[in-house]
Design goal:
Elements: H1 34-38, H2 41-50, E1 53-55, E2 61-63, H3 66-74, E3 78-79, H4 82-85, H5 90-95, H6 114-122, H7 128-152, E4 154-156, H8 157-162, H9 164-174, H10 181-193, H11 201-227, H12 233-243, H13 249-279, H14 282-290, H15 295-306, E5 311-316, E6 320-322, E7 325-327, E8 333-336, H16 337-340, H17 376-393, E9 397-399, E10 404-405, E11 414-416, E12 418-421
Parallel strand pairs: 2-8
Antiparallel strand pairs: 1-2, 3-5, 4-12, 5-8, 6-7, 9-12, 10-11
Helix pairs in contact: 7-9, 7-17, 9-13, 10-11, 11-13, 13-15, 13-17, 15-17
């Protein structure tokens, strides 16, 4: 589905019925609207201005201001464990339909102390120092992809660069086989589709099948690795699991699935969305190309401007208040990261792409608090190398066809981006 780049709204577009501040009860959070999924930013702006703490008809409270979203991500009163702590309702009920996932749950949906224990086991592989050691390998993969693009005069960025590079890197880290890359990509897409508020019953069923298939595949890889341990992250996790006091077998499978999917899915969309944003803002592309000092900061502004993860959900363990709205314990709270990243109270001229923005690193695209993205340093490095090398390798980079977008809101990204290069 084609979708526009983020643009500042020029009218009071809403996620539902037209409204004003005097009729806030008509504001709707409507992820079922294809126009909202295609370009959510005008709707985010209206919600933030008219009803920033919005009670949705699908059984959750929607937050769109930076301060509120940041609070929900960081305060310990908010739980990530919806399965245990959320009050049953339309949104929670649909999330619980996914039955074939591994019995162990990943750290992504757990609170301390289990979250702390599981994260500690893998975080050493994703420290900035560890990521620096991966930079030569990332550069090698990017250069090879761009060599092929130079030979043909063009590239389909997602399939030729944005997916294969991070997929290969996370596969290297885990020492996972790569011959079933397309199948694994398909499973990953089906699983992440199940995270969408507007996913259909058929899509939930497909996510269920994908969870069973990918879980079985990971179990087979683990069984083989037990017989051939190495110095990779997966072998290290197996060694910990076999000690029996830190990681169960079910947790091992769930952790590997999380690392494998999250290790490439976010970066694929970061690279695709970032390149498209630069092509639609050629002054900023030229600015980055000419100024190497922007390398360390440009990716943060791309994350803020059109980040791949648009929203996440928390549940308060006790009643909490946002302004004059009290949210009951157990009521799911949707923290809209994409809206927070365009809040003018935090970012000046938020709908402009500004690679020199002094506070771009305050974006919430990687979340915040104890669940801050474990792979943030890796994603930054991969995007910096991939995009920076692309725009400096080729003096001429332009769209060769209209971009195609995935019909999604939670994880937003282009699915196809044809480029001409010279």
């Amino acid at each position: 589905m084609a979708g526009p780049a983020p643009t500042p709204p020029t009218s009071s577009t809403t996620t539902g019925s037209p409204t004003s501040s005097s009729t806030t009860n008509t504001v709707l959070f409507n992820p079922f609207d294809p126009a909202v999924r295609a370009d959510p930013y005008p709707s985010y702006r209206t919600l933030r201005e008219v009803e920033p703490v919005h009670r949705s008809s699908i059984g959750l409270v929607v937050l769109t201001r930076y301060a509120d979203v940041s609070r929900a991500l960081r305060e310990t009163v908010f739980s990530r464990d919806l399965e245990t702590n959320a009050t049953p309702g339309p949104f929670v009920g649909r999330r619980r339909q996914l039955r074939n996932a591994p019995r162990g749950r990943s750290m992504l949906v757990l609170d301390p102390p289990d979250h702390t224990r599981l994260r500690r086991l893998v975080q050493a592989a994703f420290t900035p120092r560890a990521i620096d050691r991966l930079r030569p390998r990332i550069q090698q993969l990017v250069d090879a992809a761009l060599d092929r693009a130079a030979g043909s005069g063009g590239t389909e960025l997602v399939g030729d660069l944005a997916f294969p590079v991070p997929f290969q890197v996370i596969s290297d880290l885990l020492a996972m086989p790569t011959e079933r890359a397309e199948e694994l990509r398909s499973w990953s897409q089906a699983l992440t589709q199940g995270l969408e508020p507007a996913c259909t019953e058929e899509q939930l069923a497909a996510a269920d099948v994908a969870a069973r298939s990918m879980g079985g595949y990971v179990q087979d890889v683990i069984a083989d690795r037990r017989r051939h341990l190495g110095d990779d992250v997966l072998s290290g996790l197996i060694a910990v699991e076999e000690e029996g006091d830190a990681l169960t077998t079910d947790e091992l499978v769930a952790t590997v699935l999380l690392l494998y999917i999250a290790g490439h899915e976010t970066t694929v969309n970061l690279i695709g969305n970032g390149v498209l944003a630069l092509l639609r803002h050629p002054d900023q592309l030229a600015r980055w190309r000419a100024d190497p000092t922007l390398d360390a900061h440009a990716v943060d502004e791309l994350l803020r401007f059109d980040g791949p993860v648009q929203l996440t959900v928390r549940v308060p363990l006790e009643p909490v208040r946002f302004d004059d709205v009290e949210v009951e314990a157990g009521t799911p709270v949707m923290a809209v990261l994409g809206a927070a990243n365009h809040d003018p109270a935090e970012f000046d001229r938020p709908d402009d792409l500004d690679l020199g923005r002094p506070n771009a690193s305050r974006h919430l695209a990687f979340g915040g608090g104890i669940h801050y993205c474990l792979g943030a340093a890796l994603a930054r490095a991969e995007a910096q190398i991939a995009i920076g090398t692309l725009i400096r390798r080729f003096a001429h980079v332009e769209l060769a066809a209209e971009p195609e977008w995935r019909d999604r809101l939670t994880i937003r990204g282009v699915s196809r981006l044809e480029l001409a290069v010279a």
